[in-house]
User: Fold HTH tetR-type domain-containing protein from Promicromonospora citrea.
Amino acid sequence: MSTTAPESAPTRSRRERLRDELRRDVLAAARHQLAGQHGLSKLTMAAVAKEVGVTPPALYRHFENRQDVIAQLCVLIVEEVLDRLREAVARQEPGDVAAAILASTRAALDWAVRNPAEFDLVIGSGIRAELPDDAVSHGLQRRMAEMVGGHYVPLFRTWAAEGAPHPAEDELGPELAEQIRRYRDALGASDLPLGVVHLMVTAWRQVYGLQCMAVYGHQEFAFGDHVALHDDMVSALLVRMGLDPHPTVR
Assistant:
């Protein structure tokens, strides 16, 4: 009988622990600033260094500049949102794609309404305002697309594997097909037919539009609570996908 002990996780050095603690503190400070009256307009490396108790040169050893702090904050926010979405999906019956889509988009809407400043930064106009360099903002947007794709692509892959109907590639038109192809590559979903990814984009643009309505208060005189409108929209999307428009959500 083997008596070999299981391998333990490598011990992190004190420098690594301090580096991770500083990163958490810096992003927490930036997040606190984002939620404040002036948003990130007053965020400077010197102000962040002062708040976390280090010198500006020490901060620059871990972050390239202000844009790097904001970019890392965006990634952190998306990671936390995806945790919520995964939790929502995990509560559903395994393999129930319709329930998973409805539950995760509900969770995303709830997050957006509760965190309007974070929504505006990562999905609204904030990302271009704070990261005007196209190379930086495009790279970050691509990374976030990969992260979000990691959540939704498996759902659509399961749906597509069941022989669900979707547009043929020649129905999309050459210009749109090329754009969808670039988006599919960013998601790491080259195995999916373009028509399936087109339906993902169709769903996303409608979900995003409703989230913007809710966050920015558009048509608030009529739609104070957007949940009913959201569920009606998702039901229509599920019908288009050939799925149960009224799944049981846990």
